[in-house]
Amino acid sequence: MALTPNMFSVPQLSLRCIHVWRRNFLVWRKLKIPSILGNLADPLLYMLGFGYGLGALLPQMNGVSYIAFIAAGIVCSSTMTTASFEAMYSGFSRMHVQRTWDAILNAPLTLDDVVGAEIIWAASKATLSGVTVLLVAAALGLVQSLLALWVIPLALLTGVTFASLGLIMTAVSPSYDFFMYYFTLAITPMMLFSGVFFPLEQLPPALQSVANLLPLAHAVAIARPLMNDAIPAGLFGHIAALIGFCIAGSFLALALTRRRLLK
Amino acid sequence: MLRPAYHLEVRGLRKSYAQEDVVAGIDLALAPGECFGLLGPNGAGKTTTLRLCLGLTRPDAGEIQLLGVNVIEDARRARARVGVVPQLDNLDPDFSVEENLLVYGRYFGMRDREIRARIPELLEFSGLKMRALSRINTLSGGMKRRLTLARALINDPDLIFLDEPTTGLDPQARHLIWGRLKQLLAEGKTIFLTTHFMEEAERLCNRIAILDHGSIVACGAPRELIGLHIEPQVVEVYGDGAARWGDEQGRVLSERCELSGDTVFCYAHDATRLVAALETRPDLRYLHRHANLEDVFLKLTGRELRD
After folding, report:
1. How many CB pairs under 8 A join A and B?
2. How far is B27 from chain A (nearest CA, A)?
3. What pLDDT, on the 0 to 100 scale, is given for residue A208?
4. B75 touches chain A (CB under 8 A)
5. What pTM value is reported for the model?
6. Considering only alpha carbons, which residue of chain B is nearest residue A95?
7. How close does chain B come to A33, measured CA to CA in Å?
8. Which helix (H) or strand (E) holds B130?
9. What's residue B179's pLDDT?
């Protein structure tokens, strides 16, 4: 079934979406310890494993140790994976398996409220994840300035971006297995080509320009300088790119969810 | 606030999918305090009609007024005074019985204090007082359905929609739900339900409509419809020779005679001759009964399977 202009109509949000966010929060609160551990395990393993393991073999990167270099990348990538997992696996569970969204739609809320709340919720979890990794990095002495506090709103913006992209997948996916396409074709390549583990300058010039299309690359380009006491070059360009991804991603996620559930 | 004359008013409702009319122009009006049943075979358009009335999907044509609110313009506001019991359970498996009610009440903008004040009476109503702290996966199917009904009442709605409320429940659970629905009707609530169970429709509904291929083929009180469409006496005949008996004698002794699988259905105003003839055939079993809503339903929608 094709997308119609109707599906792109202006979202009718209301303050009631807070109750949907709160519902997700209350469920998370029951299982917060395993959830936080799960979100932290991968990023910390990468950071410590590669950071100390590879770091011992590598020279300084522009004046910082390798582990300090990848810390910024890992803060951003953890935000990406947490937002993506929450929007896809948890979102799909709620939408399709438990039919939680159907229950909510029988109350005075619109699908716009539900999708908006799900995006903000996944972004909230993602922000917590990114901030926790940032705190670990700070505890290890890898953060050089208070400018790093700006990483908190950056994590929120990155979280919203990847939450909306994740919800696009949820809207079109027939099953959990389908999400593997996204991880294989989007998330993993993004991890490798966004400057998380090595500077973008190491890539051939043609691939370097591809990074402009990757939200994670923009996030890393902002986070790394901030964590190393510098103002990022081209800051407003990167922020504009992320905001662009947020808006386009959210509209597309909403349109596709409308197509799936409101026909 | 002026009470609307009808709690649900539908005019000229149309919805098609893939060039096919799923709802082909229907009109409905529910008076306050009425119990209205929408019956129909699979694929008739019952659930689509329900979704249209709730504003969960847009019609291609027609008007819908729900408790005085135009659904097409402001579905969200229309649903504020409505309760919905869906066909498939959608309770929150991560929350207890009580938490499910609390979380749901918040969607209506109710304060926690208000919701907590209502929870004890709702648990009492649904017979789940001892299970307030239970997890959803420890409840039986009947308990889950009762909880879903209690949840649908959290905002003290004027109109309650139920989509096949007792499908899949055992007789005890079914009777309990029916009792509770009758209680709600006695309190003045309006009910709109869809069902396959003719017994349910006959017991609960003041009026029913039979939907087939998206159009209403009959509408009225159950007794009226039976009187209007069906001969008052029915004799069902089973057994190996039933079909042949039907051909030879059943057809002659009754006003209408149908074969369905191995059973012969004979319809007549006066069944004495039929019964007398069957008494002479000890090899055939028969059932002599009054006509019921199922007979009306099968006459108007046919006996063919709907996939």
Report:
1. 66
2. 21
3. 87
4. yes
5. 0.92
6. B90
7. 16
8. none
9. 95
Q: Is residue B178 part of a domain?
A: yes
Q: Which residue has the tokens 């109710």?
A: B110
Contact B93 A109 (CB under 8 A): no
The pLDDT of residue B71 is 94
Q: CB under 8 Å, gap of 24 or more: what pairs does A61-65 form?
A: A61/A199, A62/A199, A64/A228, A65/A142
* Chain A CB within 8 Å of residue B79 CB: yes
Query: Do residues B200 and B277 both lie within one domain?
Result: no
Residue in chain A closest to B155 (alpha carbons) equals A107
* Min Cα separation B59/chain A (Å): 10
Are B96 and B237 within one domain?
no
Contact check, Cβ <8 Å, B54/A106: yes
Q: With an 8 Å Cβ cutoff, is B192 touching chain A?
A: no
Q: Which of A23, A29, A97, A110 to mutate to test the interface with B (most CBs of B within 10 A)?
A: A23
Of the candidates A131, A160, A129, the residue with the CA atom closest to the CA atom of residue A40: A129
Closest partner residue to B56 (CB to CB) among A6, A98, A262 is A262
Structural domain that includes position B274:
231-290
Question: Both B164 and B235 in a single domain?
Answer: no
Question: Which of A19, A20, A99 lies at the smallest CB-CB distance from B88?
Answer: A99
pLDDT of residue B215: 93
Asked whether the predicted pLDDT for residue A211 surpasses 80, the reply is yes
The number of domains in chain B is 2
CA distances from B16 to B9, B13, B20, B26 (A): 20, 10, 5, 13
B217 and B243 in one domain? Answer: no
Is the CB of residue B72 less than 8 Å away from at least one CB of chain A? Answer: no
Q: What is the pLDDT of residue B50?
A: 95
Q: Within a domain: residue A130? A: yes
Give strand pairing partners of B195. Answer: B39
CATH number of the structural domain spanning residue B243:
3.30.70
Helix or strand (DSSP H, E) at B297: helix B293-301
Mean pLDDT of chain A: 93
User: B17 and A263 in contact by Cβ < 8 A?
Assistant: yes
pLDDT of residue B3: 60
Please write the tens of the pLDDT for every residue from A13-31.
889 999 999 999 999 999 9
Residue A25 domain flag: yes
Q: Is residue A3 part of a domain?
A: no
Residue B240 lies in a domain: yes
pLDDT average per 10 residues of sequence, chain B (307 residues) = 78 91 93 95 90 94 94 92 94 96 97 96 95 95 95 96 93 94 96 92 95 93 93 91 86 87 89 90 91 91 78
ipTM of the complex: 0.91
Judged by CB atoms closer than 8 Å, whether chains meet at A108 and B79 is answered as: yes
> Is residue B21 in a domain?
yes
Residue A235's domain comprises: 14-261
Structural domain count of chain A: 1
Element (H, E) at A60: none
Q: How are beta strands B207-212 and B35-39 bridged, if at all?
A: parallel
Query: B141-152 and B97-107 are packed helices; what angle lies between their axes, rounded to 10 degrees?
Result: 30
